[in-house]
Amino acid sequence: MAIDKYMRERFFPHIWCPGCGHGTILNNMLRAVDELQLNQNEMVMVSGIGCSSRISGYVDFHSLHTLHGRALAFATGIKMSQPNLSVICPMGDGDALAIGGNHFIHACRRNMDITAIVMNNRIYGMTGGQYSPLSGSGITATTAPQKTIDREFDITSLSLASGATFVARTTAYHYREITKYIKEALQHPGFSVVEILSQCPTHFGRRNKLGDAPEMLKLYKQNTTRIGSEAKQNNPELIERGIFRQEIAPEYCAEYAELINRVQQG
Amino acid sequence: MAKPKVQGHQIKRSWCKGCGICVAFCPKEVLELDQEQKATPERASQCVGCRTCERMCPDLAIAIELEQDDDATN
């Protein structure tokens, strides 16, 4: 395969469960890197903790497997010291928005040129299926045997409100969109958030009787629609897919370089 | 553009975990799970080379080989 050169094949088969959407995200993310012909020696992947964060071990880039929720903090340090590197931060929903919620908000606000990929499976899979902030209401989890009472949480709304300059959402079913949006995000000169809904058949699917991986993927097809589609007007319950924002704003590292320049000339 | 000619399915059996995604989403019903729950091209001649299995495989275990494979990413 064309993407073989970006993989650390010695670590395969990977640790993810049969049918886990994270593998499909890895598959199509590497295709985005390949299509852009990026130099893997100039790429850094920084991840935190959780199933999703194991992804950094499988790519043949510079990689850091860091603290739970703190991937963006490490990524910020890397980008500040080496702004020429392309930095990707794959995170889980709990990693990005619960444990690392504050890092996430302020990374969006700063608009540093980092690509954050939130692999949202709506559960803490690695530790046995505890519900996460993204589980929403009426979900069964090991820590919610009588179903969750929490309200829904929306990654794209939070990213938009926090000031991310590129925000997109797709699912593990829409593999072409994964490649397309990650390509756009990697090329975007600012903070990019790509939310990818990812199936966890082992914990989320099984406990909520959603069927196996193919059944869960079919639900992504049924329950999502393109932004602004007619289907959304007829059925507001549908989850929108697409690019929510793509705009240019001052990038943090560029602003910092300018500041140094200004002070030195002082 | 002419229809791509499929040369074969390269399946890494040790990577395949038998989730059945390729079987479920192949538009031509080419793939099946064998007795060991590994994906296998049961009806390889029906393959049209769309690469849906290759792109959806969460184990990165499938590669479709096409003749004149100059654009392997699409």
SSE map:
The complex is a heterodimer of chains A (266) and B (74).
Chain A lengths: L20 H15 L7 E5 L14 E4 L5 H11 L4 E7 H7 L1 H10 L3 E7 L2 E2 L5 E2 L23 H8 L3 E6 L3 H13 L4 E6 L3 H7 L5 H11 E3 L3 H5 L4 E8 L5 H14 L1
Parallel strand pairs in A: 1-2, 1-3, 3-4, 4-8, 7-8, 9-10
Antiparallel strand pairs in A: 5-6, 7-10
Chain B lengths: L5 E6 L9 H5 L5 E3 L5 E3 L10 H5 L5 E5 L8
Antiparallel strand pairs in B: 1-4, 2-3
Characterization of the model:
- The complex is a heterodimer of chains A (266) and B (74).
- Chain A is an alpha/beta fold and 266 residues long.
- Chain A has helices spanning 21-35, 71-81, 93-99, 101-110, 155-162, 175-187, 201-207, 213-223, 230-234, 252-265; strands at 43-47, 62-65, 86-92, 114-120, 123-124, 130-131, 166-171, 192-197, 224-226, 239-246.
- Chain A is globular, with a radius of gyration of 18 Å.
- The mean pLDDT of chain A is 96.
- With 74 residues, chain B is of the alpha+beta class.
- Chain B has a single domain (6-66), classed as Alpha-Beta Plaits (2-Layer Sandwich), CATH 3.30.70.
- Helix content of chain B is 14%, strand content 23%.
- Chain B contains 2 helices and 4 strands; from the N terminus they run βαββαβ.
- The model of chain B has no long low-confidence stretch (mean pLDDT 89).
- At the A-B interface, helix 1 and helix 8 of A face helix 1 and helix 2 of B.
